[in-house]
Specification:
Length: 221
C-alpha cells in the first residue's frame, strides 16, 4: 500500500548553498552537511545542479535524474521522490544542461520539503521562495569581491568562510555586507576536499568535523 505524504507541522527546511566562483568548497560542504545531518537522525536529500555530477561519482551511486521528472510531464508525486542511498541520504542529480522548468522545480521543492527533514540544494539555478541561503567563500580578496556581488541578489542566513586564517584581515570587510547572517569559519587545512570517486569521502579533521556539525545543528533548528 502506498502511503500518501503527510506534511510536517513545521516549516520545510530548504537550504541552498551558493558561491561566487567554483573551487571554494560549496559541494564539499553540502555533502558533509548531509552526512552529518543524517548521522543526527534526519531524513536528508541533496539536489545537485552540476551536470558533471561530482556527487554521483564520489558516492558511487545511480540516483534519479531531473530529466525523469521533465519527461513525466505531470505533477511530481511522493512515490517518485529519490530514495536514500547507501550513504544514508537521498540524491537527485542531472545528466544534461537542458533547463528545468520553474514549475517542476517549485512542485518538487514543495513535495520534498514535506517528505524530508532537510533538503540541500547545491548551487541551484532556481531559488524557491522559502529556500534559505548559505554563502560559501574563501578568505581571499577575489572570493570576497565575488561574494559581495552575489549578496546583492541573495540575502544569506549563514556565511561559511572556508580555508580561514586569522592572519588574513578580511573578516571585517565581509561582515560589512552580511550583518544579518551568522558567520562560521573553517580553518585553513588540507582535509576539506572531496575524494576522487570510488564511493569514498575523505574524513574531516576532528576540528572541522565539529565545526560542520555546529553548522548542521544551526540549519536544523
Amino acid at each position: 500500500m502506498i502511503i500518501p505524504p503527510v506534511p510536517h507541522s513545521r516549516s520545510p527546511r530548504l537550504w541552498g548553498t551558493f558561491s561566487a566562483s567554483g573551487g571554494v568548497g560549496t559541494t564539499t560542504i553540502t555533502l558533509h552537511l548531509a552526512r552529518i545531518a543524517t548521522r543526527l537522525g534526519q531524513r536528508v536529500l541533496i539536489v545537485e545542479s552540476d551536470t558533471r555530477a561530482p556527487l554521483r561519482e564520489i558516492l558511487g551511486a545511480v540516483p534519479p535524474f531531473w530529466e525523469e521528472y521533465r519527461r513525466a510531464n505531470a505533477l511530481v508525486k511522493a512515490e517518485a521522490l529519490p530514495q536514500p542511498l547507501r550513504a544514508g541520504f537521498a540524491l537527485l542529480t542531472r545528466r544534461s544542461s537542458a533547463p528545468i522548468s520553474e514549475e517542476i522545480f517549485t512542485q518538487f521543492c514543495t513535495l520534498a520539503g514535506e517528505n524530508f527533514d532537510l533538503v540541500l540544494f547545491d548551487n541551484p539555478h532556481h531559488r524557491f521562495l522559502s529556500m534559505n541561503t548559505i554563502f560559501v567563500a574563501e578568505n581571499t580578496l577575489p572570493s570576497l569581491i565575488g561574494l559581495t556581488a552575489l549578496a546583492g541578489e541573495l540575502k544569506p542566513k549563514l556565511v561559511i568562510i572556508n580555508k580561514h586564517s586569522a592572519r588574513l584581515k578580511k573578516r571585517a570587510a565581509l561582515e560589512g555586507f552580511v550583518t544579518d547572517a551568522k558567520i562560521f569559519t573553517l580553518p585553513r587545512s588540507q582535509d576539506l576536499h572531496l575524494a576522487l570517486g570510488f564511493g569514498v569521502l575523505r574524513k574531516l579533521s576532528s576540528q572541522n568535523e565539529q565545526r560542520v556539525t555546529d553548522i548542521a545543528r544551526e540549519i536544523l533548528r
